[in-house]
Amino acid sequence: MANLEKYRTCVEQALKNYSRYKPAYGEIEVQLIFDQQHDHYQLNNVGWNKDLRIFGCILHLDIKDEKIWIQYDGTEDGIADELVALGVPKEDIVLGFHPADRRQYTGFAVG
Length: 111
What we know:
Helix content is 22%, strand content 38%. The protein is built from two helices and five strands.
Protein backbone atom coordinates (compact mmCIF):
# COMPACT_ATOMS: atom_id res chain seq x y z
CA MET A 1 0.00 0.00 0.00
CA ALA A 2 2.92 2.37 0.55
CA ASN A 3 3.78 2.06 -3.12
CA LEU A 4 0.19 2.89 -4.08
CA GLU A 5 0.33 6.30 -2.42
CA LYS A 6 3.80 6.97 -3.81
CA TYR A 7 2.69 5.99 -7.32
CA ARG A 8 -0.42 8.17 -7.12
CA THR A 9 1.78 11.11 -6.16
CA CYS A 10 4.28 10.38 -8.97
CA VAL A 11 1.57 10.00 -11.62
CA GLU A 12 -0.16 13.21 -10.55
CA GLN A 13 3.15 15.13 -10.47
CA ALA A 14 4.12 13.90 -13.94
CA LEU A 15 0.72 14.83 -15.39
CA LYS A 16 0.88 18.26 -13.74
CA ASN A 17 4.30 18.79 -15.33
CA TYR A 18 2.89 17.97 -18.78
CA SER A 19 -0.19 20.13 -18.20
CA ARG A 20 1.99 23.25 -18.26
CA TYR A 21 2.44 22.81 -22.01
CA LYS A 22 -0.46 24.64 -23.63
CA PRO A 23 -1.23 24.39 -27.35
CA ALA A 24 0.03 27.43 -29.22
CA TYR A 25 -3.17 27.68 -31.26
CA GLY A 26 -6.88 28.03 -30.58
CA GLU A 27 -8.85 28.29 -27.40
CA ILE A 28 -7.70 25.02 -25.85
CA GLU A 29 -8.16 24.04 -22.21
CA VAL A 30 -5.76 21.49 -20.77
CA GLN A 31 -7.68 19.27 -18.33
CA LEU A 32 -6.20 17.13 -15.58
CA ILE A 33 -8.46 14.28 -14.51
CA PHE A 34 -7.50 12.42 -11.32
CA ASP A 35 -9.74 9.58 -10.10
CA GLN A 36 -7.90 8.28 -7.05
CA GLN A 37 -10.80 6.06 -6.01
CA HIS A 38 -10.45 3.97 -9.19
CA ASP A 39 -6.83 4.98 -9.99
CA HIS A 40 -7.47 6.44 -13.45
CA TYR A 41 -5.50 9.53 -14.51
CA GLN A 42 -5.74 11.56 -17.72
CA LEU A 43 -4.53 14.71 -19.40
CA ASN A 44 -6.90 15.96 -22.11
CA ASN A 45 -7.13 18.89 -24.51
CA VAL A 46 -10.60 20.39 -24.97
CA GLY A 47 -11.65 23.45 -26.94
CA TRP A 48 -11.73 25.06 -30.36
CA ASN A 49 -9.23 26.08 -33.03
CA LYS A 50 -11.27 28.48 -35.15
CA ASP A 51 -14.23 26.31 -36.28
CA LEU A 52 -12.52 22.98 -35.56
CA ARG A 53 -13.45 21.16 -32.34
CA ILE A 54 -10.44 19.94 -30.38
CA PHE A 55 -10.89 17.04 -28.01
CA GLY A 56 -8.26 14.47 -27.29
CA CYS A 57 -6.49 12.45 -24.69
CA ILE A 58 -2.79 13.28 -24.37
CA LEU A 59 -1.98 10.87 -21.52
CA HIS A 60 -3.93 8.08 -19.84
CA LEU A 61 -2.45 6.16 -16.92
CA ASP A 62 -3.98 3.64 -14.54
CA ILE A 63 -2.63 2.03 -11.40
CA LYS A 64 -3.49 -1.67 -11.30
CA ASP A 65 -2.02 -4.37 -9.07
CA GLU A 66 0.59 -1.91 -7.72
CA LYS A 67 1.91 -1.14 -11.19
CA ILE A 68 1.52 2.00 -13.27
CA TRP A 69 -0.05 1.17 -16.62
CA ILE A 70 0.54 3.73 -19.36
CA GLN A 71 -2.55 3.13 -21.49
CA TYR A 72 -1.91 5.98 -23.92
CA ASP A 73 1.03 8.34 -24.37
CA GLY A 74 0.64 11.07 -26.95
CA THR A 75 3.73 13.00 -25.85
CA GLU A 76 6.90 13.43 -27.85
CA ASP A 77 9.35 12.13 -25.25
CA GLY A 78 7.18 9.68 -23.34
CA ILE A 79 6.09 9.82 -19.71
CA ALA A 80 7.71 6.52 -18.64
CA ASP A 81 11.18 8.02 -18.24
CA GLU A 82 9.76 10.88 -16.20
CA LEU A 83 8.13 8.37 -13.85
CA VAL A 84 11.48 6.60 -13.48
CA ALA A 85 13.12 9.94 -12.67
CA LEU A 86 10.46 10.44 -9.98
CA GLY A 87 11.52 7.16 -8.35
CA VAL A 88 9.23 4.54 -9.91
CA PRO A 89 11.17 1.36 -10.77
CA LYS A 90 10.93 0.23 -14.41
CA GLU A 91 9.59 -3.13 -13.25
CA ASP A 92 6.50 -1.30 -11.90
CA ILE A 93 5.69 0.52 -15.16
CA VAL A 94 3.74 -1.28 -17.89
CA LEU A 95 3.61 0.18 -21.39
CA GLY A 96 0.03 -0.93 -21.90
CA PHE A 97 -0.16 0.59 -25.37
CA HIS A 98 2.23 -2.12 -26.63
CA PRO A 99 0.85 -5.60 -27.42
CA ALA A 100 1.40 -8.05 -24.54
CA ASP A 101 3.78 -10.22 -26.57
CA ARG A 102 6.08 -7.25 -27.28
CA ARG A 103 6.30 -5.73 -23.80
CA GLN A 104 9.19 -8.02 -22.84
CA TYR A 105 11.40 -6.04 -25.23
CA THR A 106 10.60 -2.58 -23.79
CA GLY A 107 12.77 -2.68 -20.68
CA PHE A 108 9.66 -2.13 -18.56
CA ALA A 109 7.21 -4.52 -16.87
CA VAL A 110 5.17 -6.92 -19.01
CA GLY A 111 1.99 -6.71 -16.97
